[in-house]
Amino acid sequence: MAPITVAAVHAAPEYLDVDRTIEKACGLIIEAGEQGADLIVFPEVFVPGFPYWINCYAPLVQVPMHARYANTSIDMSDAASLRPVQEAARRAETMVVLGINEREGGSLYNAQVFIDERGNIIGRHRKLQLTFAERTLWAQGDGSTLNVFDTKVGRLGGLICWEHTMNLARQALVGLGEQIHASSWPGLSTLAGFSDTFDDQVEAMTRNHALTSQSFVVVAQNPVNQQVLDVLEAALGPQEFLTTGGGWSAIIHPMTPYLAGPHTGLEEKILYATIDLEDITGVKMFVDSNGHYARGDILRLSVDDRAAVSVSRTSGNGVVPMVSGDPDFVE
C-alpha cells in the first residue's frame, strides 16, 4: 500500500449548537481533503461538545442541561442527521472519524462514527465504560461496537478517552488486526485537579497503545474556549473548576516517535502526517501482539460482541427463538 496522509483535528465545536458544529466539521473535512488527507479524526463528542458541566455543578441542578444535551444529540436512525458530514467526506475523498453525542430512544451514548471516503457510514463505536461523572449522563456501549474496519487506509479502529485504560478493550482491537487507531478525547487539562496530570496521562496511554498494538495512533482533542464557559455560566451560574485552554493532539508512530505534534492550547489547527503501513512490519519483528508476543497458549481474551438487549421475546409455545449470536445456536 502507498503511503497515506492522516489528520488530527485540534479544534473546539460551536458549543451545543449541532448545526453550526456540523458546518464547522464539514469545513475542516474539506480543508483536510485539500491538503491530501486520507483520514481525519475529530475529538470526543465534537458534535455538539463535551458536557463539562458534569464536573462543575451539583447533580440536581444539571438536569435541565442534560435535557438540553439530549436535544442536541444525533439519532443515527435519522438518515439525514449526518448527511452534510457524509457529503463533505465524499467531496474531500477522505475517511472521517467523528465524535458525537448519540441518542437512541431515551438513552445517550458517547460515540465515534466511521465514515468512508464515499460518504458511507461504515460503523460506530460506543464508549464502553463512562468515567466518573459521565456515568450520570451516558449509557454504556456494548461489545457489538468494539470493531476494526477494513478500509482504503488500512484496518481502522478507535477508542474514546479513558477507554485506553481498558487493556482488554485495546487487546480486542489488536486481535482484530488494527493498523490505525483513532483516539478521541476532550480537553480536560484545564479542569481542577487535572492540570498537572491529564496531558501526561494522554501521552502515556496513546504512546503505549501505539507500541503495544503496533499501530499508528491519531490523537484528537479540543481546547476549552470562552464560548464553553459562557454557555455553562449562563445556564447554571458561576463555576470555579474549568478555565480556557488545554487540548493535546498528536500523531504517533508504532515505535512511539511523534509524527506530528503534540499540539496544545487555544490555537486551532489540523495536524497532518504521512504514514506508511509497511513500517508496522518492521515493528512486528520486535513485538507482534497478535502473533508471537500474544502467548495464546497462556493468555486468552474472550469478547462478547453481541448487542446487549433488555427485552427478549418468547414464541407462542414459550421457547425463546435462537439467533446466530447466541452461544448455543446451531445452524
From TrEMBL:
Pfam families according to UniProt: CN_hydrolase (PF00795)
InterPro entries: C-N_Hydrolase (IPR003010), C-N_Hydrolase_sf (IPR036526), Nitrilases_CHs (IPR044149)
Alphabetical keyword list: Hydrolase
Keyword Hydrolase: yes
Molecular functions per Gene Ontology: hydrolase activity
Residue ranges of every copy of the CN hydrolase domain listed in the record: 4-277
Gene3D superfamilies, per database record: Carbon-nitrogen hydrolase
PROSITE patterns per the UniProt record, alphabetical: CN_HYDROLASE (PS50263)
PANTHER family with a match to the protein in the record: CN HYDROLASE DOMAIN-CONTAINING PROTEIN, NITRILASE
Family designation: Belongs to the carbon-nitrogen hydrolase superfamily. Nitrilase family.
Protein name (database record): Carbon-nitrogen hydrolase family protein
Organism: Aeromicrobium wangtongii
